[in-house]
Amino acid sequence: MFYEPKDGHGLPHNPFKAIVAPRPIAWVSSLSTEGVANLAPYSFFNAVADAPPMLMISSSPVPSNEDKDTLTNILNTGEFVVHIVPHAMRDAMNVTSGGYAHNDDEFKRAGLEKAPSTIVAPPRIANAPIAMECRHHVNLGFPGQNGVRGSHVIFGEVVGIHIADEALVDGKLDVTTYNPLARLGYMDYSTVRDVFSLDRPKV
Ligand SMILES: Cc1cc2nc3c(=O)[nH]c(=O)nc-3n(C[C@H](O)[C@H](O)[C@H](O)COP(=O)(O)O)c2cc1C
Hints:
The chain is mainly beta. The chain has one domain (21-191): Pnp Oxidase, Chain A, CATH 2.30.110.10. The protein contains four helices and 14 strands. The protein has helices at 16-19, 69-77, 90-95, 106-109; strands spanning 23-24, 26-31, 37-42, 45-50, 53-59, 79-84, 114-115, 124-125, 130-141, 152-163, 168-169, 172-173, 181-183, 189-191. A seven-stranded antiparallel β-sheet has the order 3-2-6-9-10-5-4, covered by helices on one side. A hairpin with a 2-residue loop joins β11 and β12. The longest helix is centred in the middle third of the chain and has 9 residues, at 69-77.
């Protein structure tokens, strides 16, 4: 098949997110201006530079036309923390994706313990294997389509990185110690369990 997204795909579900898969999941904590913690998963997420380390997350519009809490909080406070989701915390991650009220603390909803961050104000998940403290760098509003608002992309600089001691094996980050979760299409996920290496060509 071939389709132009502006004309629709004719399938029961939009295949785009199943095509661009697997996607890493940013489990993002932030603080409202009232100081209430927020936590939510974002799989339109990736690293985009490494010196200094920069990453992006993208917030899709919601039918009510309001911004998602993560976007509102980051634009208001300039700070957030991105965690990597281990397979063992998949259910807690899923709980935090619910559309709760703005000042509803998803750490409490999911029964997650908070730990203070070192540089930024938003707390981090105490037992997450990886937590990256970020400062907002720049944001981009994308055009909408067919009368629906566009997505909003946040770029942030990673200013502090927490790595659990158990995740470092012989000085290298070993993802098989925590098995990061990845997002596929529809309601599907994958888990990183198999790792292999390839040497670069010597030219
Ligand atoms: C695995 C997963 C990935 C998600 N990725 C995104 C995403 O990239 N962008 C987005 O706008 N919403 C995404 N969502 C939906 C948000 O998590 C959901 O709308 C949540 O309620 C937003 O919370 P907030 O308003 O506290 O930011 C995702 C949900 C799940 C379960």
